[in-house]
Design goal:
The structure holds two protein chains of two kinds. By secondary structure, chain A is an all-alpha fold. Helices cover about 80% and strands about 0% of the residues of chain A. Chain A is globular, with a radius of gyration of 24 Å. Chain A starts with 6 loop residues before the first helix and ends with a helix. By secondary structure, chain B is an all-alpha fold. Chain B is about 75% helix and about 0% strand. In chain B, α1 packs antiparallel against α6 and α6 packs antiparallel against α7. The chains are: A mainly alpha, B mainly alpha. The interface between A and B is large, with 42 and 45 residues.
Chain lengths: ~450, ~210
């Protein structure tokens, strides 16, 4: 693993502690600049890898990009939440970032597992830092459910390691390259059991549907800059860890519970449940959380199809989703502060009251709904095409229906948010016109009346 | 080695069964001690196993039970008791332990299992820990259950792989230490903010 990538988080911790004890002004700004410098450094360091399509290089670039936006968003967010203890926030935040980089770079299943477990703890601690009872409850469920899931995943990893113990390579046994080389020596039944354990165990962290119960709570109660990291990066990276495992240790497709089958099944379930739940949401961040479940489902379907085209599509979906969803979580956080509520029926009339937030929010939601010139439309189209090429017609119909439903639900919430709460009944419009004519005099009133 | 595994299993049974949290903490410490003995007797004593043993002893029967004990002793007596275990839990526990035998039958043709008795104790402890997470209601019972599952995993690993790589053992220990620290810290906050140690109090977020 390339150690230089961890200079970024380390620098944040040093800056946060130094800033605290030396009483620097503007510590969050300094940290945000440092994270941006890290992002540029990462770009310079790994642009060759990105150009040739090297997955870890691309993933690390996405991670650092979202980390930079999260660091910048932490500045206004910190002003909005003065009770948050800044020093603790800026210790857990870089630890969470470290775990994300480690998951992205891991070429070893054991390292990936340890990093995923650690990411649970760091992000859980950040949720607790919110201090409210709801946050405490969400963090407790998150840590307990995710830890149990990961323990099950570890059983699978131990089985794989146990059946390759003759290699005597230590933890290098679990390198993906080594696994891909010797997987035939693992007995079939062990491979089956291990695949089920790893997919459902780490799948708990992905938030795929039977195991998603912690996800909406944790995402809605976390600090918004952290929600962005959780939803945009962590879930997708855990999914990619599963994909790396099932690619390294494949099963014959005649086996009922092979990795791609499980991914397709869980992905479809997540897609359906996520898109159905969107319409009835009342909380702005839970809306985004359920949309994340739906998006992760689409990614899982893409990876489950398994052709290079579908995998590229799923990776693109991950990248676009990371950018869009993190932006939406930041915006949602600011909106809920501006309106003093996270309830969607209170956050109305954004277009009238907060122009900038309205533009960002509308663009983000439209992108998420899959409006064509914006990214997700393209990758979703690619996945539909891959399904068509693989003759998976039933899945194609489900995905199309779910995408239409998602579009409708998101647009409903968007329109209500932008213009809801404005009284547009004829009586109210007439009153408004009268009062306008009283203020501005008869000439403008007749001119305005003529136009309407 | 198998005897140490047996002790881990018995302590897991005790952990599930006991309502008194102070006893639970002692069962947890006993599990840690049995694991240490297992690590030290599982093969020739090398520097690596010596260190893993010491780390296990310090963390699993020192720091974690100690922190839990300290928190419990600060609470009034009514918060030191868990609710009685529901009747179905006993049936499920028996079923889960018996199911391990079936798993052994299923996996033994593959040659995965080095040590059948140890495999039984490990998987049975994990099963009891999982049952404990869903049937026990005290917040610290859940922490104890997570640590118990982790202990069962170590026994399971010893039964199929001899020992896990040093790097993984230590990584798991550190992760467990951080997890237990955060959860114990959270259970103090739950007690303070909710005036309860029953996880049924955590019911605001649903759907």
């Amino acid at each position: 693993m390339n150690v230089e990538y961890f200079a970024g988080p380390l620098g944040v911790i040093v800056l946060a502690l130094a800033g605290h004890y030396l009483r620097w002004p503007r510590v969050p700004e300094i940290i945000a600049v440092w994270v941006t410098v890290t992002l540029i450094g990462t770009g310079l360091l790994s642009y060759q890898g990105i150009l040739v399509g090297n997955w870890p290089a691309i993933l690390v670039m996405i991670v650092n990009l979202i980390a930079a936006t999260s660091a910048w968003d932490s500045i206004p967010w910190g002003h909005e939440h003065p009770n948050m203890r800044r020093r603790r926030y800026y210790v857990w935040w870089p630890l969470f970032w470290t775990a994300l980089i480690a998951i992205a770079l891991a070429s070893n299943l054991a390292v990936a597992w340890l990093a995923i477990e650690f990411s649970t703890l760091a992000s859980g601690a950040l949720i607790v830092e919110m201090g409210s009872r709801r946050a405490l409850e969400a963090a407790w469920k998150y840590i307990v459910i995710a830890s149990v899931g990961l323990a099950l995943g570890l059983i699978g990893i131990i089985f794989v390691y146990g059946s390759l113990r003759y290699q005597a390579l230590g933890w290098n046994t679990l390198n993906y390259s080594n696994l891909a080389h010797v997987y035939r020596h693992i007995p079939l039944i062990v491979r089956e059991v291990a695949t089920i354990f790893v997919v459902s165990g780490i799948g708990t962290k992905v938030g795929m549907v039977p195991f998603h119960t912690w996800l909406p709570d944790a995402h809605s109660e976390a600090p918004s800059p952290v929600s962005g990291l959780l939803s945009g990066l962590l879930l997708g990276l855990c999914l990619i860890t599963i994909v790396r495992f099932i690619q390294a240790v494949p099963l014959p497709s005649s086996v009922g519970f092979s990795g791609p089958h499980l991914l397709l099944a869980f992905g479809t379930l997540s897609l359906v449940v996520g898109s159905l739940a969107l319409l009835v949401q009342r909380d702005i961040k839970r809306l985004l959380a359920y949309s994340t479940i739906e998006q992760v489902g689409i990614m899982a379907i893409g990876f489950g199809i398994g052709t290079p085209w579908a995998e590229t599509a799923a990776l693109l979906q991950f990248a676009f989703h990371a950018v869009i969803k993190s932006t939406l979580f930041y915006t949602g956080g600011h909106l809920s502060v501006v309106y003093h509520s996270k309830r969607l029926d209170k956050i109305t009339g954004i277009a009238r009251d907060h122009r900038t937030l309205a533009v960002v929010w509308a663009t983000g939601i439209l992108a998420l709904a899959g409006l064509p010139p914006l990214g997700l439309a393209y990758s979703e189209w690619m996945i539909l095409q891959a399904l068509w090429q693989n003759n998976a017609v039933a899945l194609l119909i489900i995905l199309t229906a779910a995408l239409v439903l998602t579009f409708a639900a998101l647009l409903y919430h968007l329109l209500r948010g932008l213009w809801g709460g404005l009284d547009v009944s004829p009586a109210a419009v007439g009153l408004a016109r009268e009062s306008a004519s009283k203020i501005s005099g008869p000439e403008t009133a007749t001119a305005g009346g003529g136009q309407h | 080695m198998a005897t140490a595994g047996l002790f881990v299993f018995l302590a897991a049974c005790g952990l599930l069964w006991s309502r008194n949290m102070t006893h639970g903490v002692w069962f947890l410490a006993a599990e840690g001690l049995a694991l240490t003995v297992m690590v030290w007797t599982s093969g020739p004593l090398t520097a690596a196993t010596l260190w893993i043993g010491f780390a296990t002893l310090t963390i699993k029967s020192g720091v974690i039970p100690g922190a839990m004990h300290r928190v419990i002793s600060q609470w009034p007596t009514e918060y030191r008791q868990d609710q009685p275990l529901p009747f179905w839990a006993y049936l499920v526990a028996a079923g889960l332990v018996l199911a391990v035998g079936h798993v052994i039958q299923l996996l033994s043709p593959s040659g995965l299992i080095l040590h059948r008795a140890l495999f039984f104790y490990g998987l049975a402890s994990i099963h009891l820990g999982l049952l404990m997470v869903v049937s026990r209601r005290h917040v610290l019972s859940q922490v104890a259950a997570l640590v118990g599952i982790e202990n069962g995993l170590v026994v399971l690993a010893a039964s199929v792989a001899g020992a896990l790589p040093t790097f993984m053992e230590l990584g798991m220990l550190v992760d467990l230490l951080v997890a237990a620290a955060i959860l114990v810290w959270m259970s103090r906050r739950i007690h303070r903010q909710f005036k309860s140690t029953d996880i049924v109090a955590l019911r605001r977020l649903r759907g």
